[in-house]
Hints:
Blueprint (H helix, E strand, L loop, with lengths): L11 E6 L5 H10 L3 E7 L9 H9 L6 E3 L3 H7 L9 E5 L23 H16 L7 E7 L12 H12 L2 E9 L10 E9 L3 H9 L1 H7 L1 H5 L11 E3 L5 H7 L12 E5 L2 E5 L19 H8 L8 H11 L2 E6 L6 E6 L30 E3 L6 E3 L2 H7 L9 E2 L2 E2 L2 H10 L3 H18 L2
Parallel strand pairs: 1-2, 1-4, 2-3, 4-5
Antiparallel strand pairs: 5-7, 6-7, 6-9, 8-10, 9-10, 11-12, 13-14, 15-16
Amino acid sequence: MKKSSAKKAKNLRVAELFAGVGGFRVGFEKADKNRFQTVWFNQWEPGKKQQFAHDVYTKHWDANSLAHTNTDLQEVVSKHIDDVPDHDILVGGFPCQDYSVAKPLRQSAGIIGKKGVLWWSIVSLVKQLKEKRGRKAPEILLLENVDRLLKSPGTQRGRDFAIMLRSLDTIGYDVEWRVINAADYGFPQRRRRIFILAYKKESGIAKQMRKSGHNEWLHSGTLGKAFPIEKTSATSLQEVILQDDEKQISDKFGRGLKVSPFQNAGVMINGRVHTSKVINKAPKTVSVLKDHILSDKEVIKLFGDKYFIDDEAALKNWKAQKGPKKIERINKKTGKPYFFAEGGMAFPDHLDKPSRTIVTGEGGSGPSRFKHVIKSPQSGRLRRLTPIELERLSMFPSNHTAEGVNGPISDNVRAFFIGNALVTGVITKIGKQLLKNVDEYGI
Length: 443
């Protein structure tokens, strides 16, 4: 009897940095719970006595049966590297900081970030897995950050991202990136973030990248297939020249530029970077705010009346926060007056559109320009969004953040969690396409 030649689908072992309450894991498990297998995670909230996010994560996924650390990533790299098991994909939404360096990466003993030590900790983690212990470095990196990373700092437009690309090239990875607004692909929140996918240069996917070329990979790569774009011509692709090492980039890249050379999509193959401004293909269906809200009866049953804004004085303050303003201020350096101006915002928020970006300060009853306020379709009463609604808008299961291993989590902390979290549906789409590419090209 002839044996089947079909290849067995490869499972991907996942290591998660800056895990929060498990957004990457929720997204991957929706993509394929069996094939994405988390083998280790790290979560640490600096300056916090109680590690609430870690408690929530371990409430859902038993820490006793999963390798993990609850400490600063720098300490993981310097003291607990042996706790990190072999894995195929390393993921994380790392903090946005200053990535300037004092020495090039090739002088590995001298990698010093002025503030961006966590980025260099990621780089050092990968290098140690590969070099110091003779172990296998992760085949794939999936990293997430705010989109301003592409144009920071203001004095050297694009420098930080250029340093990141060069350091990834130096430690052996090819890269694709996209700025994705979740709402552009039908998800219920307008959250714009950059997603960076890096593949080990010896991997099957990286070999396919070289075969396809920069322009074609914008469309046929993992991000291009997961989040389709309108067809762009090769002439729209621009090359960005990177200096030879991180120190040169830190000193010279972007000086005198008013606009970053990096567009919202790009590819780096063998250290050569090409970038393009791409246009997203509109989704067939769109999820909007009203699709995810509780009824008045549900809100009162679960939370009482505290989310409703009925007091006239409080309502006046809310309107002032949301309205346009022009305020005279004094420049601290020059002592000269200037006017600070803000435009008005929708009040209440539109129910027939995706929500605005959820921020970490969403919790609390005090009036704020950035918090959401909706008008109840049932009663017409104004109210803030509850933690359950915030979870749903980021595509977490309802009450995902309600409890940790040490007990219930306060509403304000739950709102903070979601303000820090990603839209998990984005990770689901990336995960599904990544599995297809792994199956087709190998890692």
